[in-house]
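Continued from yesterday's entry.
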Amino acid sequence: MPIGIDQLNFFTPSLYVDMIDLAKARNTDPNKYIIGIGQEKMGINPITQDAVSMGANAALPIVSEADKSKIDMVIFATESGTDYSKSGAVSIHRLLNINPFARAIEMKQACYSATAGIMMAKDYIASHPDRKVLVVGSDLARYGLNTAGEVTQGAGAVAMLISADPRIMTVSDETLPFTKDIFDFWRPNYSDTAMVDGKFSNEAYIQFFETVLHEYQRRYDFSLEELEALCFHLPYSKMGKKAMANELEKVSEETKNRILAHYEASILYTKNIGNIYTGSLYLGLASLLDNSQEISAGNKIGMFSYGSGAVGEFFVGELVQGFKKHLATKEHQQLLDERERLTIPEYEELFMEALPENGTSLKLSNRFDSAPIQLVEIRDHQRHYAFR
């Protein structure tokens, strides 16, 4: 029974910083950001958008009235959680008015956990083929003002409905995870910004990709020649290209050129939003499907998921007949086009805004925020979300 992605949508807040503006403010050559890192714009969240509200906004357009009664599980993947105990999935479940007899859980493993959510969803649907699972990956990537990682920040969420007989992409049963305890990137509970060993992080990413790919090839008699495209978790748009460089030297020139051409289509949204952690791989998939003119039904797409700390996984998806009719290409482009460009002082002011940590009540609003679902109030140590 084919199981996979039935619907796919992303959300990013209505604000961005232009990388040329940021480079000038940081006394840096803009080409270091635009060409060296491969980033053009950085998605910025107002205080009224956190991981939960962004996840709900990503899911809102793809959860129909009929779906609400069929969704048996809401899986919220994030490393930007808002509560040590209560899952953001519970809030998303309420906001979308999903069937009350459903599981709602939050998963964490850096940027990897949305993939774990998909695999869990597949297992559930295999024994409940008439049901669906909502998987949401949502995060705020923050490293601090005027830091080495500032240019790779971002904000956004991706939502996917997983079902039998999916209308976009089936996910193969042949998948391979790999885990190793390392410190390439982490964020202690007492810090609101991440810590990263930049050089080691890049090396670990490449090592994980090559390790899982080689073992996948050994176990499943697989070749990159079978793929139309490769999608990667993208902490910045150049990372996937670095990871596959050695492997592309082992394939035909035709395969190499094809995969590199599709890669350029897959990074367009990341270039304009930045790193969104758990949703990053699937933002790349959305970008590929929306922007590649050559991709077609029956094509196989290799998917490399990576979450620092670290867990990686490689699997293959296959596009189904008629998938293009179920893409939100026009809506995605409109979302990006309608964002407002912040000045650097405006960005720095928004970045420093913080929610109270002592139980103080606060009603929230932001003139920039036009999203349907927002964080509207802090009251009695509780976050309250509502439709605006």
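--- second protein ---
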Amino acid sequence: MRLMTVAELNNYIKEKLEGDLFLNNIWLKGEISNFKFHYSGHMYFTLKDAQATIKCVMFRSRCSNLKFLPENGMGVVARGRVGVYERDGQYQLYIEEMQPDGIGTLYIAFQQLKEKLEKEGLFDQKLKKKLPRLPKRVAVVTSPTGAAVRDIITVLHRRCPHIEILLIPVAVQGENAPPEIARAIEMVNAYGQADVIIVGRGGGSLEELWAFNTEIVARSIFASSIPVVSAVGHETDFTIADFVADLRAPTPSAAAELVAPNYLELVQRLAELQERLVLGINFYLQKNRNRLEVCMKSRVMSRPMDLIQSLVQKLDYTVARLEQAMRGFHREKASRFQVACAGLNNLNPLATLERGYAVCRDKVTGSPKTTISQFRVGETVEIILRDGLVDCTVERTEEGNS
């Protein structure tokens, strides 16, 4: 049997509790008691119901997101994880977020759907479609009565009188609202004539806006090939439709402002561009007209033959220099040829014979005899002279110079 310390036991229990996936993210409903707002910014209190209590702590980083001030006796719905405070050996709920109990169920459903769709990528900014700069037709999916549709139509006509409005009347609250809104978005896409879709309604409570927090509406917006602007409630209201839509407008009027270009501003902008275009063309024409005038006044244009005659003279001078160079080249080559011929003539053996010398060679082999040892008494040799040859018989040989 292993003997454990108290610290080891508390740590073991902590690991068991914090390793449980279910206990890592639970929603809990209860009433606040023993509330204490610590000077550090942390909140400590107990959640209780008729049968039990549990210690709770909400750290300062999470408290900053609260939209209400908790107090004793208040019913709340909280989301958090169960853990163990080892020093005291007690388990407690570490709260991540908390809402008053009155909207707890809807808020939990909102958060759960938001987390689900976000994981699937329906909120990905990279998938958002850009709104057209100059839409011709705007589809409005909303209730046919009420201030929202009037505001949208008024702003669209004021900003751009030529824009066409395609009104798709739907219920915006109640059980029929979600499927009607989804079908309307699908119908606009099937029709294919709208450039942008505005989906929304005026302000209201969370329950009244709930149609825009449903999965069917969210998926229909995401599936739309036409850009969708969500305009639900007031500026402080956020719905699932806002996160899925290509653009969120704080109010229906603001949606119309974002969708429709200001007609007067466009006209003014076009006038400015037209003016700039005319000025640019006039400047370009004047610049080239000035260049043409300068060219026409130049010597080349006024007396073109001067340039031609100058070039002809330059050509004649170049030809003359070329001919002179060729003659000098020929003289040099001829002189070098004569010198080479003279050198070759000096080496010519016939030239030696012209000076009175003779060549003696063997009668049989024809090889020249240059030394006394090559001669034998009685043999016949040939003597080559300037103008012929003579056969001679050797009668005597004598060494030494004569």
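DSSP finds twelve helices and 13 strands in the chain. The radius of gyration is 57 Å. Will compare against the first tomorrow.
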